[in-house]
Amino acid sequence: MSSTHDHVDVLIIGAGLSGIGAAAHLTRELPRTSYVVLEARAASGGTWDLFRYPGVRSDSDMFTMGYRFRPWLHEEVLGSGERILEYLRDTARAYDVESHIRYRHRVVRASWDGDTALWTIEADRDGETVTCTAGFLWSCRGYYDYERGHEPEFPGRDEFRGPVVHPQHWPADLDWTDRDVVVIGSGATAVTVVPAMASDAKHVTMLQRSPTYVLSLARRDPFATRVRRWFPAAVAHWLVRWKSIVVQSAFYRLSRSRPGVVKRLVRKQNVALLPDGYDVDTHFSPRYQPWDQRMCFVPDADLFRAVRRGDVEVVTAGIERFDADGIVLSDGRHLHADLIVTATGLRLSPFGGIELVVDGRVVDPAEEMTYRALMLSGVPNFVFTVGYTNASWTLKVDLVAEFTCRLLAHMSARGYRSVTPMRDPTVRERPLMDFTSGYVVRALDQLPHQGDREPWRLRQSYIRDRRTIRRADLEDGVLSFT
Ligand SMILES: Cc1cc2nc3c(=O)[nH]c(=O)nc-3n(C[C@H](O)[C@H](O)[C@H](O)COP(=O)(O)OP(=O)(O)OC[C@H]3O[C@@H](n4cnc5c(N)ncnc54)[C@H](O)[C@@H]3O)c2cc1C
Asked: Is the pLDDT of residue 295 over 80?
């Protein structure tokens, strides 16, 4: 894409896991479709290139976090950031996605013209605006703000003498050897970074306002190892992936239908892994039900082992203020720190401030309803990819891509130029996500709604969505084709 006008059939925004997946699906399923991927940064991989904190890894199993069409061949169940990035870039090369990516192109605006049935996309390239047109727009820009993570205001922050680091912007030269480190947070990032820093730091404190469910998973899956030995690669991939899908889905459903059982199960494991007499109820028993918020998984109990060794202490308390030497807690205690890590989360930004305009009307996503959690009411020829929150992101990436390719093939076969989900006023609005995690609650007013029935309702279940997204009739009376 240059500053002169270019045209493609499909324009994909973002070269992260979703964008590379989308492009690979297009290559596999609709090889004659022309496409380009506009990527704001100078590198591909999105999340897995941006996050560089110690120990960065997935907390989903890689058999489902990998694409359906490309097996994860490593032994480790939870993939390291480095290996995930390598896997994504290998996929991009294998499907010739790499040559379609235009780096340092930040999409700022996309306007739809119903007369020509075209999107005009404006992107910022090093301060210069470049434009191109596309028949179809596919947003794979992720779900959070890349510039800034979520950092609450801590009184006295400027008084603290040491560095305060947010994991989203980890300085490459940060040294924590023999330092007292306090990590504020209790989510996936905190439980990853704490044991990873513990081996070099003098001491690490994980300071949390309230606890999270933390469950240990085996680093290697013996089932996967055996199946790979016995079956050809494609069959092994299918078996291992489906075993993960079924186990994951059954665990989630059990958590929602019998939360008491899951609470007891997690607690039992925590008690067995922590030192005798440890106050599990204060530090590892949340007040909410399992999967009201994302559950945390740690490989081979690394967090619990670090607590057992005495390298890590978990403190559950509020923060009164920072002072020169650390943090004063609301119960009056003082935590000494040479370095503070604010693992306080992300700022959700589902459409990333990209201005969407349809025939002169600026679209406010919060006013719209999502069709199968992949299109927006009233917005033609537009698909967005946002993955699952209660399962691997990628399961949804593959489904959205399969749906989009099916939709594009259908339009091409019937000679349609545009498709728009038309809102039905009898369908009632529901929040898009029923998670109570801070980052979701903070952004609810920016998110579109889902509806109370199909096809406006998001199931958050791969097994059910797979059936509807893959097979549902596209001429369903909701999608309007012209
Ligand atoms: C630390 C961390 C760990 C995670 N672990 C897991 C996990 O274990 N399992 C799981 O399922 N999910 C996990 N997630 C969620 C994770 O983000 C997804 O799994 C997945 O990587 C998201 O991929 P994506 O391509 O949709 O978005 P991203 O990875 O965010 O990629 C989006 C891309 O779009 C680009 N972009 C954004 N805006 C624009 C624009 N305007 N113009 C052009 N380009 C743009 C960005 O630069 C980026 O490259 C994790 C997230 C984080 C932050």
From this structure: yes
Which residue in 181, 180, 211 sits closest to 193, CA to CA?
181
Tokens of 78: 């939870």
How many angstroms is it from 373 CA to the middle of ligand 1? 17
Q: Residue 4: which pLDDT band, with cuts at 50, 70 and 90?
A: very low
User: 66 is written with which tokens?
Assistant: 């990998």
Helical H segments across 210-364, by residue range:
222-230, 233-257, 259-273, 280-284, 302-309
Three-class DSSP category at 397:
helix
SS3 342: strand
Local structure of residue 402 (DSSP, 8 states): H
**Residue 409: Cβ-neighbour burial (10 angstroms; 0-12, 13-18, 19+):** middle
Which residues form the pocket of ligand 1, taking CB atoms under 6 Å from any ligand atom?
13-19, 38-41, 46-47, 51, 58-60, 65, 106-107, 140-142, 146, 188-189, 352, 354, 385, 387, 392-393
- Ligand 1 atom nearest residue 352's Cα: 38
Q: What is the pTM for the complete model shown?
A: 0.95
What's the distance, CA 353 to chain centroid? 18
Range 221-228 contact pairs with CB under 8 angstroms and sequence separation of 24 or more: 221/61, 221/63, 221/77, 224/63, 224/75, 224/77, 225/75
List, for residues 94-120, the tens digit of each pLDDT value: 999 999 999 999 999 999 999 999 999
Integer Cα distance of 93 and 442 in angstroms: 37
Instruction: Give the side-chain half-sphere CA count within 13 A for 366.
Output: 8
